[in-house]
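User: I've been going back and forth on whether these two constructs are worth ordering. Before I decide, could you fold them both?

Assistant: Sure. I'll take them in the order you sent them. The first construct and its structure tokens:
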Amino acid sequence: MIFYQDCRHIRWDRPCKFHKEYGVHCKECSYYDKIGFKILIIKLAAVGDVLRTTSILHGLKEKHKDSHITWVTRTAAFPLFENNNLVDAILDCSAESLLRMQSETYDLVFNPDSSPKSAILATLAKGKLKRGFGYNEKGHVYPFNKEAQKWFEMGLFDDIKKANIETYQKIISNIVGISSSGCDIIFNLNEGEKALAKSFAEKHGVSKEDLVIGLNTGAGGRWQKKKWTREGYLVLIRLIQKELKGCKILLYGGPEETERNRYLMEKENGLIDTGCDNTLREFSALLDLCDILVTGDTMALHIALALNKKVIALFGPTSQAEIELYGRGKKLFANMDCLCCYRPTCEGLPVWT
């Protein structure tokens, strides 16, 4: 019997979906899709960084049209890849996944992170060509290719990081060897998620004719000064209500923003709280209700850009230059020499008001 082991749809331990649906065998199957180039991407964290790294997928598929892409990441990032037909397989960081990476041979292994864990995985994976970062026998992380050298130095020295003017998308596209044009972040809502957002909008009186402004009031816990103050958001809310009468203001956040969003709701009437206990994909579906999102440099920023929203991005200790807004937003940051310091806190310095 003939069967095509290099077909994208083969499942090995069970029939493929086309056999189950149509009863076809490989010999006469018109859905045969040959894999010609195997790619392994290792990008573990953080979730927002994993999302913006999806910007390389279109370029990889354009360069390697018959490619099969496997992505290794943490399970927290798995929901990002639902409804994404450019990634063929998702692996976690388990021992089973490591065995698979060592059993298969990839035409290209790409690891854009210089963290030791990512570098070790990239080194252990079997690949004909490796780009990004690996781990040598002396316990040192090192660039696989010269194009990764600048990114490596930016991770080691604050002054080089601060002097950079290239976006993350351009930097990693150069490292992996593709064009950075058309490098949109990829995140696709499904019909059920769109229905959830529609139901929420109807319940809270939000129509397509309304101007909807979203305020994402948090920014994770690693860098405290990524977050704008709640007083700053309160001033902004009052200004919006004064200048843009009739617009709808939606509050977004995660568990860490429960108290600050409650504070804003108590201080001003007419705000709509989308909740702080949504799943990642529920959060994204509700974010799709916005026309404009005001946010710090965090996951919500990248989701909004993937959903083609207009964005006002607030920056503190992280690099504003690295963020690609695709011509759909504005970057706001203070005139302070210490910006882009990547320090978790900055006690004693003035806060935004």
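The second construct, handled the same way:
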Amino acid sequence: MLFFKAFVIGLSIAAPVGPIGVLCIRRTLVFGRRVGFVSGLGAATADAFYGAVAAFGLTVLFRFFVQNARPLHLIGGALLLLIGLRTMLARRDVAVSADGPARSGGLLPAYASTFFLTITNPMTIISFAAVFAVIAPARGLDYGSAAVTVAGVFLGSAAWWLVLSTGVGAVRQAAGVRLLAWVSRLSGGVIAGFGAAQLVERT
């Protein structure tokens, strides 16, 4: 039951469409399902990390991320703005391939970038701490239960990214190159908008 609750938590935190979701959608459209899914796994790993901090009661790390929320938000916002602008300014004829996925920079950069972007949102750790305070017993979680909880969070988040990348990949097969190119640019504008809003919010 604890694993199922954690799975639902991971799924519900990953599901709302934000900048990471838009970025994964864009990468799936341009580079294919595998890159989109691996990008989502980066976010799922960051969710699991924050879940581990909350579940294991790592107060030192918890305080670090909360106390440094503003600079982390600024870094994340600047990166989102940069990624969005690069996407918008990319040449349309090389942004999307008609014959198959375009060449990406590799799976590791796709994974690492979304992990870093997600980890720069310390409000996630507060969400996990609040939820775990409700589902955990009064005495807290032992190490075994905490590990099960973190695994559930990761798999729940990963499940969402698998569903999203698979669904967007199916849409990619039915869409034309011109439409995909414009969607790619539009997603760049949305990502840049998220980044700009994040910078304005924290300045």
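Notes on the second construct follow. Residues 97 and 177 are 7 Å apart (CA to CA). Residues 2-202 form one domain.
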